[in-house]
Amino acid sequence: MTKNITADRILILDFGSQYSQLIARRVREIGVYSELHPFDVADNFIQNFGAKGVILSGGPESVYMDGSPKIPQAVFDLGVPVLGICYGFQAMTAQLGGVVQAGDIKEFGYAKIDIVAQDKLLADTADAHNQSQVWMSHGDKVAKLADGFVATSSTPSCPFASASDENRQLYGVQFHPEVTHSQKGTQMLQNFVHSICGCGKAWNSDSIIEMRIKQLQAQIGDNEVLLGLSGGVDSSVVAALLHRAIGDKLTCVFVDNGLLRLNEGDQVMQMFADNMGIKVIRADAENRFLDALKGVTDPEAKRKIIGREFIEVFSDEARKLNGIKFLAQGTIYPDVIESAKSKNGKAHTIKSHHNVGGLPDDLAFELVEPLRDLFKDEVRKIGVALGLPAEMIYRHPFPGPGLGVRILGEVKKEYADILRVADDIFMQELRASGWYDKTAQAFAVFQPIKSVGVVGDGRRYAWVIALRAVETVDFMTARFAHLPYDLVDKISTRIMNEITDVSRVVYDVSSKPPATIEWE
Questions:
Q1: At what angle do helices 233-246 and 205-220 cross, to 10 degrees?
Q2: In the annotation, is 158 catalytic?
Q3: Which residues have a Cβ under 8 Å from the Cβ of 352 and sit 6 or more positions away?
Q4: Is 470 helix (H, G, I), strand (E, B) or coil?
């Protein structure tokens, strides 16, 4: 019998920190299944979850303000270890009889904690000076510990940087161990989930694949499944996973909208149909999409048209198939988390663009979502473990509307063909120079303006291409990549030499904010 790899599980309650999802990812990275839920989730959910331990996230509120989020009493009644991080530590302190107040000095960024007492949480985290570098992000601080708690570390402005009541297995840290800037943060999380909570290390790519295949086989049985295959990471991993689970009962529809990267359509067919033997129907809809986009310049209007045409083409292909019961989707865990907000007036539904969204009423499928409980980094690791090429799985993000939003203004085949080649040259040179993996996203943008150039003894009046490359961790903020001038020069020269319809190349030096990463 397959081992239940989610039996050892950590419940994370979200109090609104920007790092809440990161806590869940870090716990999973060290081999333990975790789920992230709103702090105000029902008591019976907490009681029935089966947590070996609970982590309370940080958050932007102040515990001493009216209406601030409270830790459910059900958490303390479980009798399992609890780790409060930042706001979670403050809320635990306040609710158990301690005092929290606004700090005279706010701490944001790197800090050195002095470890003043050893407990199980801080084991093996001190350097030779009995210190550890951590990441702080707080204005309030614990001024008086709750009864039973002992201070375990401090900073000059924060007397209780961490504390614990080991008799009750309650631990609190004012800093953020989940952030990579906290040098021994991973060790602290390992101490909590393995040493204190007693969890094993059953959660890994191979065991996830084994578990998911059995679940898919049980859900689908002998029925047929339809998947919209885009060539992106999520749908590609879903295809590989379903193929492993149900073989030829999977049919994929690949809508080629004419707005893909150079040779991408052929590559998708070669990878999935030829190499893996998956049934893939290629719907060549380039003309249909380009006709629908004629004369349209507004970015949002272009997105809606491309989305509508995709659904119509996909639906047309689906109607030609008999006996399909299930529709597979590449919904991933962050989509679910963002949509299942806490009870205070926020929606509990999946975002519209992650729904089966807009399929006609005559196509009533049941949903299969094999990646619904997985983070993006887990999806990528599973893709590689399933045999998909790493260069495909770790490719830079590509927008759903494709080149439709990287061609500014009206979309024409001429523009798409030029942009495809320019973008491919850009990617070739980034990979050859080692800069592809140093940037989080890079692409070319077609500018619908012409500029004068000189070629030999003649003048050329041709289009402009902009290059965009950014460095970012979370895509919420980003700075333009500081590519070497020699590299930019080489890319620019190649594009203008190899594409006669381009006379000028510019490099985008805007950061986010205020600029967005994509141009449209």
A1: 60
A2: no
A3: none
A4: strand
Q: How many residues does the chain have?
A: 520
Kindly give the confidence (pLDDT) of every residue in the chain, 520 residues in length, as a single tens digit, with 9 standing for 90 and above.
Answer: 346 999 999 999 999 998 899 999 999 999 999 999 999 999 999 999 999 999 999 999 999 999 999 999 999 999 999 999 999 999 999 999 999 988 777 767 888 999 999 999 999 998 989 999 998 887 788 999 999 999 999 998 889 999 999 999 999 999 999 988 898 999 999 999 999 999 999 999 999 999 999 999 999 999 999 999 998 899 999 999 999 999 999 999 999 999 999 999 999 999 999 999 999 999 999 999 999 999 999 999 999 999 999 999 999 999 999 999 999 999 999 888 877 754 443 333 333 333 445 678 778 899 999 999 999 999 999 999 999 999 899 999 999 899 999 999 999 999 999 999 999 999 999 999 999 999 999 999 999 999 988 776 677 889 999 999 999 877 778 899 999 999 999 999 999 999 999 999 999 999 998 999 999 9
Q: Is 138 a catalytic residue?
A: no
Report how far residue 309's alpha carbon sits from residue 287's, in angstroms, rounded to the nearest whole number: 11
- Note if the pTM is more than 0.85: yes
Catalytic residue among 29, 35, 37, 86: 86
Query: What is the full DSSP assignment across 221-290?
Result: TT-EEEEE--SSHHHHHHHHHHHHHHGGGEEEEEEE-S-SSTTHHHHHIIIIIIIT--EEEEEE-HHHHH
Options 35, 37, 158, 176, the catalytic residue: 176
Candidates 29, 35, 107, 178; catalytic one: 178
Q: Under DSSP, is residue 502 helix (H, G, I), strand (E, B) or coil? A: strand
286 is catalytic: no
